[in-house]
Each structure stands twice: as C-alpha cells, then as structure tokens.
Write a sequence for this structure.
C-alpha cells in the first residue's frame, strides 16, 4: 500500500472552463476517479504495474470521452487509425502498434507484440492481422466512427486544418450521449504505475489528430517519445502535439536528464515540456519515479488526470485541480 | 573543404573474411568509395548536408549489395517492406516512412514527409500513396524481389528464424550478379554529413530483417533510435538489431550523454553500443559531431563503411580496415 503509485491522463489541451458545464465536468471527474480507483485497488491487491497500466488504458480506450479506442478522432479518410505502446520498467521490454484499424483495444495489441517478443513495433493492416492471430478482440472499423467525430472531421476539413483533439472547436450533438459536451477537448490517454515490488510500467493509446494523413504516427507508440519505462529512472506517458514530442524524444529526454544530468524528475519534465513548447508543441505528461514521486505537469490550459501518491485518489482537469 | 565531413555505412554484421574473395571484397570497397567520393565532392561544391545524405542513401538503396531499396531482404510474406528516415541538424526537422512497398527510394519518401511538414512519420500503404502523390518515383513491389533474397527467406523459414541480414547463412547464386557473394552479409544503410556551413544531417534506410513479421518497424525510421541529427551534438545513423536499439533509444542516447553527461561523442557511442550488446543486440553506427569528428564504431565482426575526415576517402569492412 505504501509502495503503490498510479497516474493516468485523458489528454491535455484547450479546456474552456466557461463552456464546461458543472454536470459535464462532474461526469469526466467521475470517470477519471473510477478508473484510477480500480487501478489502485488492483495494485493494493498485488497486481503488477504492467497489468494495471494495460487495464487502465483499456478502460480509457473504451470510454468515448477520450481520443483513444472507442471515441477516437478520425483521419482524413474518415477512419480511426489507432496507436498504442506499453513498456515494462524491469527490463525495458516493450510493444507498440501503429495505424491499426480493427483492434478494439490497441493497448492489448501492444501487449501482444511485447509477449510475442520477436519485435517491438508492428504497424498498419499487418498489425491488425497479427493482433487477430494473437487472440486480441477485433471490431469492424465502423465501431470507432462516432457521429461527433465525423462532424469534427468535416469541420476540420472545411477549414483545411489538421488538429489535435484538444485544439478543436466542433459542436457535437449533445443528445448523442457518446460525447457529452460541446467542449470535450480530449487527447491521448495513458497510465503509469509502480507496484508493490516497486516495478514501473507505462502505457499510452491514441487516435492521433483529426484530419491527419492516413498512416501518420505520432509520439504515443514511439518508445522514448510518448511512452517510456525504466526502473532506473521513471515511467512516463505523454500527451500533446506528437510531431514536436517526437523531435524532442520527449520521454527518453526526461530519463536521460535524470540519468546523465542528475536532474530530478520534475525539473527534467519541466525542461523538456518547455523545450517542446519553444519548438511549437504544447501538451503534458504523467510520470512516476523509482522513489514513488508522482508528477503530472502540462503547459496546455488543462489536462484530464487522476493519480494516487499514497493518500487517496486525486482528480484534476485545470491547473488548480 | 576543411569543414566538410562525411560517413556512410552499408550495414554491420558477421563478415567472414575467409569466405569473402578478394574480388568480391574489392567490389564492395569500390562501391563504398565511389558513393562516398561523390558525396564529398558535392559537399566541397557547396551542397547541403541534407541533400548529400539523401543522395548517398539513395545510391546505397539502388545498389543490390545492401539491404535497402533494391536488394532489400524479404518479410515473412515474401515482400520487401522498407523503412527510412532523414533529419536536419539545424532545426531537428525530420521525416520518416515505415513499411512502404512501392517507393523506389524510401529516403526520398522520408524527405517528402519532411518537406510536407504536417507530420514526422507515415507508415504502411498510406505512406506509399502519400509518396506517389508527392511525386516520388514508384515501382511495382516485385522490383525489390531478387532471387537471392527469396532463397534467403526460404532458408530462414525452413529454420523458423527471423534474422538480421548479417546473421544469415544463405547461398545465393553467384551467377546472378545482383548479390555478388555467398557471404554478402549486409544490413541497414545510412549516411551522415557536415556541410560547409557546418550543418549536420543524417539519413538511414533499410529492408529490416529477413522473415520479419509484415508491418514490423525497426530502429532505422524511428527518430532518436536509428537516426538523429542536431547541430548541438551530432548526426548519427545506426545499423544493427533494431529491437534492442529501439529499447536503448540508441541515437538519442548518444546525443543525451553528450549534452547532459558531458561525454565526448566517441565515449557516448561506445557506451550505448555496449549497453545494447549487454541487452543482446549488436551492430554499429556512424556519427559526426559539431566539431567535425567522425566515428564509425561497431561491435559486430564487421561493418561496411566509408568516410571523409578531412584527408581523403577511407573505406573499411573489418575492424582493421
């Protein structure tokens, strides 16, 4: 109990408090708290960090509030192309998939790549076939196509924009229920955990950017960019403008600043987020270090997040909480 | 002239000197020297590092001796799935493609992604379509399927192995000409350069591993793993067992050790190659730092390489030269 730590994010972005009704905000906070609560309960019951981050990301994927799995944003062709990665801090074992179309929960496909062991990363239709052969639940591609996301894509295309989910200004149907707020700025989802053995793990999953080119990969599935775990330093999952995070090798940069520069995790994370922002990309990250510190910094106006640092589940959306 | 530097590699691996006839060895050395010679001449004439690494990798792709472009190894389904990346040290602008099937020169597709600017990485059939639309020359997939590579794949499949090119023991037809030696252990190709403005650039291209799963990406197209360039530190292209290099974030690790750990480039490269070897992956890299130092370390028995460090083109295959 004293050793377990957990954090999750549901994306960082432009969250306009004025347009976010108390009811909608409460719905988000409840979901974040519930998923985090189950994750912490599993850790307390002895579950491994790897199993817990996989399950938490799976639940975030299944929730239509967030841009991953069910509810993911659509690419230029109107399809949800999904990316995910998972990494084990004990030995840096990792698995990732990119641009999959039929895997219900991409984080499960990433874990299947890790378990298979031959490779680290599989992409495209072949990755779907691998996942199906590995027994990962599959769906038809239209499972992912929600009316709100179609509207969002049409707006982006009318404006000739490629947008992060959190940069969007679409007005989805309030009646649909799937996307509960016209201001539901969302993004990548991710989770990091430290288990009772003090082992670290991280997982990230995303639908990427609305109106992205088909086949586009962002930072989420790239080991060292959007996802990283090493017991020697930290477990980390990022969310933000993937292209800039890739050029910063963001997650590994935090690791490297800690390992070679003797920076503490928080200073390292602040430095790399500042560097990404300087280059043009905003976002945030969640991370847990070997000593159990939990950080959730972001330089966007908000980041959906929940965490356990030893004293109850905490939830935040805006900088203040 | 005093400022320009250049290095290329044609893969690292098990190169058995006993089986490598003097004639075959001479053929390899000639090709390596010619491509490097043209690159250095272009740099001396004022070409940018970016243009020179793209052109050198394109020539290596077109040469059937090496595992990239024409002559690439085949995946489990008998197709050449190609990966490439290119990066500009001035601003970390970069482009990458993964698992393309119809791009004649994947490095050109990677450069097209960079030029387009919206994204850093495109994969799969959609990346082929992007490249075609961008005007990159396309070929039919069977352009890449050489009889020697088919034989190599069949042998690997008979032995149920997934192999790096340099780990293979196939016996291609000596008469075919395309693959000039039964011992032609090859691998990823890459180039790094410093131009007259002292700007750095790097590019890498590969067919990956024989009998790899379709959709598999290795380190070559991953920014920070197999390819990196930043004027602040170095330009680097790696070749080796990609899965381990990805788990080491190899190229960025060299950058980070230099930037945060105050290590010189050579010590940093030795350390990360040792780390990868400790995890189970051998290989090598070529790199040029901001001050014009050129290194070409490898912990495999050999690495095809050529370089210019200010005093004539040098060529090597084995540790001694």
């Amino acid at each position: 109990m004293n050793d377990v730590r957990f954090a999750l994010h549901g994306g960082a972005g432009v969250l306009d408090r004025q347009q976010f009704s108390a009811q909608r905000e409460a719905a988000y906070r409840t979901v974040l708290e519930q998923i985090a609560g189950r994750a912490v309960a599993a850790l307390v019951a002895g579950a491994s960090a790897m199993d817990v981050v996989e399950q938490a990301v799976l639940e975030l994927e299944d929730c239509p509030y967030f841009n991953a799995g069910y509810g993911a944003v659509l690419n230029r062709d109107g399809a949800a192309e999904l990316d995910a990665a998972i990494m084990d801090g004990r030995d840096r074992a990792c698995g990732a998939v990119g641009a999959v179309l039929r895997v219900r929960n991409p984080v499960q496909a990433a874990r299947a790549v890790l378990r298979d062991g031959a490779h680290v990363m599989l992409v495209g239709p072949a990755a779907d076939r691998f996942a199906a052969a590995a027994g990962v639940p599959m769906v038809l591609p239209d499972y992912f196509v929600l009316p709100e996301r179609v509207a969002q894509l049409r707006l982006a295309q009318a404006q000739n924009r490629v947008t992060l989910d959190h940069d969007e200004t679409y007005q989805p149907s309030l009646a649909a229920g799937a996307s509960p707020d016209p201001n539901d700025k969302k993004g990548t989802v991710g989770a990091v955990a430290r288990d009772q053995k003090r082992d670290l793990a991280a997982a990230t999953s995303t639908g990427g950017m609305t109106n992205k080119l088909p086949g586009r990969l962002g930072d989420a599935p790239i080991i060292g960019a959007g996802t990283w775990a090493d017991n020697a330093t930290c477990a980390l999952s990022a969310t933000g403008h993937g292209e800039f995070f890739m050029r910063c090798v963001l997650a590994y940069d935090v690791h490297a600043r800690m390992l070679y520069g003797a920076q503490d995790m928080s200073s390292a994370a602040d430095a790399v987020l500042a560097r990404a922002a300087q280059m043009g990309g905003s976002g945030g990250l969640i991370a847990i270090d070997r000593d159990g510190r939990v950080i959730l910094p972001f330089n966007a106006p908000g980041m959906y997040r929940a965490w356990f640092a030893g004293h109850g589940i905490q939830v935040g959306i805006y900088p203040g909480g």
Notes: The mean pLDDT of chain B is 91. Residues 5-316 of chain B form a domain with the Glutamine Phosphoribosylpyrophosphate, subunit 1, domain 1 fold (CATH 3.60.20.30). Chain B touches chain A at residues 92-94, 98-99, 118-127, 129-130, 162, 212-218, 222-225, 242-243, 246-249, 252-253, 256-257, 260-261, 263, 279 (CB under 8 Å). The two ends of chain B are 24 Å apart (CA to CA).
